[in-house]
Amino acid sequence: VYIVTMDPRAVYTMDADRAAFVIRPGLAMTGSVTTEETLVSAVGHDFNWIEGAINADTDGLGILLEDTDFSVIRNVKISDANQGHMGIGLFVSGSSNCHISDVQALNTEGAGMLVAWGSSYNTFRNIFAVGNAWLSEITLDGAHHNDLENLTAAGSRQIGLYIYDSSYNIIKDVHAANNGSRGIQLDRQSHDNVLMDITTTCNGGEGAAIYGSHDNVFIGLTSSGNNGEGIALTGYEFNSEIYYTSNNVFANTTGA
Q1: CB-based contact 10:29 (threshold 8 Å)
Q2: What does the alpha-carbon distance between residue 166 and residue 190 come to, in Å, rounded to a whole number?
Q3: What is the pLDDT of residues 156-191, one digit of tens each?
Q4: Residue 246 DSSP label
Q5: Is residue 160 within 8 Å of residue 176, measured between CB atoms?
Q6: Quick one: which of 78, 152, 230, 248 has the most CB atoms within 10 Å?
Q7: What single DSSP character describes residue 213?
Q8: Is 0.85 surpassed by the pTM of this model?
Q9: How far apart are CA 104 and CA 112, in angstroms?
Q10: What does the alpha-carbon distance between residue 246 and residue 152 come to, in Å, rounded to a whole number?
């Protein structure tokens, strides 16, 4: 167990299995004087534990979990990742069977939380992603068989919750509001997802957009006060390939 109690101006790499990294309450890591860093990373090791506050101003990535299984991230606040090609609060890549809960991701330049590239069988609880910039608050990209509950995705310049080429996920209790474009968007053949108790309000475009995705189930979707359609279903062609939107099921749904 490594506990940061003073001098948070550093970066940390967890280079062993069964390691814990905890930042003392009341203290926030800020990284070194070098810019565009990843402040805390666990790569290729299992059974790791991370918690605490991170201010990633002038850096590219708050926390990276890559090819890491059976690990825990909890009670984490990440803010202001705004340099480099990412600008992401929490990036979960190629990792499985992890439990991630009570995360705040605020004011990053890219995405608040990105779950991608084969990440599967993870659980996410109580994710609060607000004020993140260019793409989305929360993104699933090539992520499958995950379980997400109690998500707030608000204030992005683009999309609140973006589900891209991701399938067999269960997503429950989502509030997507005041995003510049869409509240939630499913795209690029995302299929067999179940979304329950979804509220989209006051977004700049559609409340819920299903693009080129099929066989998803929506239960309790409420979409109101958006500048575009409450619910939009669209297929499209890209690089000579047609992406159909079909066989999606809606129950107890209100779109205005």
Answers
A1: yes
A2: 5
A3: 999 999 999 999 999 999 999 999 999 999 999 999
A4: B
A5: yes
A6: 78
A7: -
A8: yes
A9: 8
A10: 27
